[in-house]
Amino acid sequence: MADRPDLMVDLGRGLRLRSPVLVASGTFGYGFDAPQVDRIALGAIVTKGTTLRPREGNAPNRIAETPSGMLNAIGLQNPGVDHVARVYAPVWASWNVPVIVNVAGDAIDEYVAVAERLDSVPGIAGLELNISCPNVANGLQFGVDPDQAAKLTSAVRAVTRLTLIVKLTPNVTDVVAIARAVEDAGADAVSAINTYVGMAIDVRRRRPVLSRESGGLSGPAIKPLALHAVWQVAQAVRIPVIGIGGIMTPGDALEFLLAGAVAVQLGTVNYIRPQAAHEVHEGIAVYLQEHGLRDLRDLPIRSASVLTHA
Amino acid sequence: MSIAVAPAVVVERSVPMAGAVELVVYHPPSAAAVNPGQFFQLAVGAPRTILRRPYSAAWSDAASGRVGFIFNVVGAGSAWLSQRDEGSELDLLGPLGRGFELDGDRPAVCIAGGLGIAVFLGVVQALVARGRKVTMLQGARMSAQLLPADRLPGADVRTATDDGSRGHHGSVVDLISSHFPPTFTGERQGGGIDLFACGPTPMLQSMIGLAQRHAVPLSSIQVALETPMGCGVGTCLGCAAPRREGGYLLTCQDGPCVRADRIDWDRMEDQFHG
Q1: Which residues contact B23 (CB under 8 A, 6 or more apart)?
Q2: Distance between CA atoms of B221 and B3, rounded to whole angstroms?
Q3: DSSP calls for A25-37
C-alpha cells in the first residue's frame, strides 16, 4: 500500500488547507449549527454572506425544491460584520479549521468597509468576495462586468492582507473574462461558480413560488454547467480555482479536480448529508491511492484543443 | 440533543384516517430523545427529489424504541415515504427544533386543523401524563378525515367538519368560543387555559384573532409552525417566519413550537403550494 496521499491545498498568501473539500457559503451558517460534522475533516468553512450592517433577508417563501436541485432567495440574512468580528471570530480562533468569511455588499465602499473590519481579526483565515449574489438588489452588478469586477477586487485588495478569493457568477456571457479581470486585479484565487438564476411557478396558485419570483439554482441540476465553467476558467487563469456546483459524491468532486480545480466547495449536499464533506475527502484520498497519485497536483487533465494549440 | 443519522427501520404502515398514512419506525435513540413537537428530517429517494422532508413525530415510545409519523401525500417525497414497506430503512436526522412546553397546571386545550392533528398524539399523552385536564379540538374537511378519538386517550375530544358530517358544522376555531367562553376572560381574572395549536395558517390566524378579541394573552398559546424547510438545522435560512418585532425567526431552530406572541400573524403566509 502506498503512503497516504497528500491532500494539502495552497490557496495563496499563506492560506494552506489540509483538505481540498470546503463547505460553501450559505450552506453551513457560521459553522455553529450543522450537526454531527467533524469540523477538523473540513478544508475550510466559508461563512454565510456577510454585509456591513445586519440584514433581515427576504420575505418567505425563500426556497423551493426543483428537479434535482433547489432554488433559494434568502436575501443575505446575516448579523452584520461587527457581530461576526466580535462574537464569532474569537470562537473560530480556537477551532482547528480555517474560516473564510464570504463578503457581500451593494457598493464598493461597503465591501471595503467589511474587508477593513475583518483584516487582522484573529480567527479569520481569508475572504471570499461575493460579487455574484442573485437574490438582492444590485447583487450581480459587480459580477457581470469585467471592469466593475476588477475595480471591486483591487479596492478590497488594497485594504486586506488576507487571502482574497473572488466568487464568480455563471450568469454572464463569458465567465473567463471576469476570471481574468479579477486575477489581474489581485485576487489570490477564484471560486466558480455561484448559483444560476432560475424560477419556479406554482400552477395551482398561478404565481411564482419564491417571494422574489426568481432565485439561485443549486444542486446536481447545475453540476455539468458548473463543471464546464470551471474547465474554462482553470485553463485561463494561473491562480487557484475552487470548483463549486452540485457536488454530492467523491466522484463529482474528482470531476472538478480533473477539470483543473485545486479544491472544491460542497453546498446543497450539506443540507441533506451533513457528513458529506468527510465522505468526499475520504473518497478523494482513496482515488489518489488507487491510481498511484501522491498529490492533488497530479490530477488535472488538459483540453485536447488547448494542447494542440500550445 | 442527540442527532441520529443511523437508519431507522419501518415496522408498521397503516391508514389512521382517510387521506393519511402512518409510518411506525424502530429507532431507539430517536424514540428516547424526541420531545412532543420536535421533528425529524426524513431522507427520501424519489427520483429528482433532493431535500429531506421535515415531519413532526406524531408520537414516540422509548420503551419499544418506536416513533410514529402521520402525514398525507402532497408530492413526490411524501408519496415515496407512503410506499415504504415494513422492513425498509429510513434515514432520519433528528430530533430537531424545539417542542412544546408542556409543564403547568391550567387546563390544556389542543386545537388541530387537518393533518395538524398528527403532532397531538404525543402531546396529549404527555399532557395527560402530567395530570393536566386535556381537551382536544379536532377539525377536518369531513368525518372520514378525523383521527379516531381512541388514539387520544385521556382527552375530551370535540370535533368539527367543514361538511358537517360529524361534530360542529364549521371551523374548529368555533369550538373554542362555543365551549370555552368563560375561561376566555383571561388569566388576570383567574383561571385561563393553555392553548396548543397546529394547522393551516388561515386557521391559526383566525384562532389568534379570536384570542385577541377575548383579550387572551398570546403568550398562553403555543403554535407548532409549518413552513417549507431546507436543512432543518439553521444553516439554509429557508424556513423564515415573520417575527413580531420585525425580521424573521427560523422555524427549524426557534421552533417549530413557539409562543404565539413571537409571530407577526399579519405577515404570516400560508407557504405551502403542494
Answers
A1: B10, B12, B13, B68, B69, B71, B81, B82, B84, B90
A2: 28
A3: TTSSTTSSS-TT-
Interface test with B, best of A271, A275, A278 (most B CBs within 10 A): A271
Q: What is the ipTM of this complex?
A: 0.92
Range of the domain at A136: 9-58+74-196+216-309
CATH number at residue A178: 3.20.20.70
Per-residue pLDDT of chain A (310 residues; tens, 9 = 90+): 456 788 999 999 999 999 999 999 999 999 998 766 677 789 999 999 999 999 999 999 999 999 999 999 999 999 999 999 999 999 999 999 999 999 999 999 999 999 999 998 999 999 999 997 666 666 667 888 999 999 999 999 999 999 999 999 999 999 999 999 999 999 999 999 999 999 999 999 999 999 999 999 999 999 999 999 999 999 999 999 999 999 999 999 999 999 999 999 999 999 999 899 999 999 999 999 999 998 898 898 877 765 444 3
> CATH number of the domain that B47 lies in?
2.40.30.10
User: How many domains does chain B divide into?
Assistant: 2
User: Residue B227 and residue B269: Cα distance in Å, rounded?
Assistant: 9
Q: Is A125 a catalytic residue?
A: no
**By residue range, what is the domain housing residue B161?**
108-262
Rounded to whole angstroms, how far apart are CA atoms A101 and A116?
Answer: 12
User: Chain B contacts of A27, Cβ < 8 Å?
Assistant: 231, 235-236
Nearest to B234 among A29, A56, A205 (CB): A29
Of A15, A22, A115, A133, the active-site residue reads A133
